[in-house]
């Protein structure tokens, strides 16, 4: 009953919109600063630090996220130029999507994903706070974008999705027999 109210009520949408815009501003601001800084953003030092001093158990010293550390060491570091592009652009686009309410759930999902990735690397900072707000926005479902571009985008996307898959279901996958 509470979730139904949260996901459908107009007043819940107002509250989520406030949270969504605040969260969006945090992401947009972080991305903008990285994109416009005098010295170009470089995640190399952060990544090297996360690999050389991974999150570890205090008693045993064992890595808590060994697969993530492996990913950082064997993919992120060798492709640091790609990471240097994806982080600021991603943060900026997440923020923009949340502020304008366009593809809100997608932006919220990617925001939470980035928060988790930063936490796995051992950076607490504002990540738990942003993750919590992201969860609040994400669980509101379509109501999170009610006062935003999603009001117009969602019906168009649904129509396109139905058109795309209705033809394949009715036509047997588009194969011609005879």
UniProtKB/TrEMBL annotation:
Span-the-membrane segments of this chain are 92-117, 129-149
UniProt organism field: Cohnella faecalis
**What's in the keyword line of the UniProt record?**
Membrane, Transmembrane, Transmembrane helix
Name of the molecule in the record: DoxX family protein
Upper classification of the source organism reads: Bacteria, Bacillati, Bacillota, Bacilli, Bacillales
